[in-house]
Design a protein that fits this description.
Elements lengths: L2 H15 L11 H44 L4 E5 L5 E4 L1 H7 L3 H4 L13 H14 L3 E8 L5 E10 L10 E7 L1 H29 L3 H15 L5 E7 L2 E8 L4 H8 L2 E3 L4 H9 L9
Antiparallel strand pairs: 1-2, 1-5, 3-4, 4-5, 6-7, 7-8
Helix pairs in contact: 6-7
Length: 284
């Protein structure tokens, strides 16, 4: 118990006893002994109460520290945000996600860490939250201080507050970049399979080579986006460009479609013919 608290208790006791002096001269020795005994018992009681208070205070401090550790070291980011979108509190995970020190993040508009294409969605998220006072969830692209973009799931809940307290919300940020990458890969696989099925159907329905090649070029763009593309057929020692797409000038398109290349002196073509495998060439 602090000295200031003990002094306060003493002052209050003196005020209560003020005007009520004890006349020891009129008391018998037995009464004085009883009073002394009661005072000793009361002193022991106060000592025990002080020990209990100190123990309770220490337990409270330890509990607060455990809560602080759980808050800071949670696997998701926690932010407290006001209706203007300003960050008022942040746990350690959130600061690491956004790559910014806690003191710099404090009172900073969170929208500055939202990708430009998702900022309106974030502002709508906040508006719905505080207008309806109901939880909101959105998936947005956030930007770290170093410029790196990542996908995040934002779960926001209004924070209960007294009538006089300012409105705030608790925002939970979960990094879902890996999940988004898996979803995109699955989507591309489904698109690729659909394109192959479409090409197979056309191959079974027409013998027109130009029509088949044009369809192949059209559907490849769904899987691997390109600016220009060609279909090359091997004829003995030569590679013939049988069809192309993406050339804007007609004369260039015609020149490409009539081009014949020697296989053995063209390393990329020689590799493809020899291995029968696709060849990835970096952008040049």
């Amino acid at each position: 118990m602090s000295d200031s608290f003990s002094n306060d208790l003493r002052q209050r006791a003196l005020e209560i006893l003020h005007g009520q002096p004890i006349n020891i001269g009129k008391m018998s020795s037995e009464e004085i002994e009883r009073i002394v005994y009661e005072l000793q018992v009361h002193e022991v009681e106060l000592q025990l109460q002080n020990e209990e208070l100190r123990g309770a205070q220490q337990a409270l401090l330890e509990s607060r520290q455990k809560y602080a550790d759980l808050y800071d070291l949670a696997p998701v980011g926690y932010l407290t945000v006001n209706p203007a979108g300003m960050v008022e509190e942040a746990n350690l995970t959130a600061t690491q996600m956004l790559d910014m020190a806690r003191e710099r993040l404090f009172r900073r508009p969170l929208v500055s860490h939202v990708a430009a294409t998702h900022r309106q969605a974030f502002l709508n998220h906040l508006q719905r939250l505080f207008e309806t006072q109901s939880p909101q969830r959105d998936e947005l692209q956030l930007v770290r201080a170093n410029g790196e973009v990542f996908y995040a799931q934002i779960d926001s809940t209004p924070e209960p507050a007294a009538e006089s307290d300012p409105a705030r919300c608790l925002m939970v940020i979960t990094d879902i970049t890996r999940r988004k990458q898996i979803e995109l890969a699955e989507y591309e696989q489904r698109l690729f399979a659909a394109s192959l099925r479409l090409i197979a159907n056309v191959l079974n329905s027409t013998l027109d080579l130009d029509e088949v090649l044009d369809l192949i070029l059209e559907n490849v763009d769904y899987v691997v986006h390109y600016d220009v593309a060609e279909v090359i057929l091997f004829e003995e020692d030569e590679a013939v460009i049988a069809g192309s797409r993406g050339y804007t000038k007609r004369e260039l398109h015609e020149d490409v479609d009539s081009l014949r290349l020697p296989v053995e002196t063209t390393p990329n073509l020689a590799h493809i013919r020899r291995t029968g495998q696709p060849l990835l060439v970096p952008d040049i």
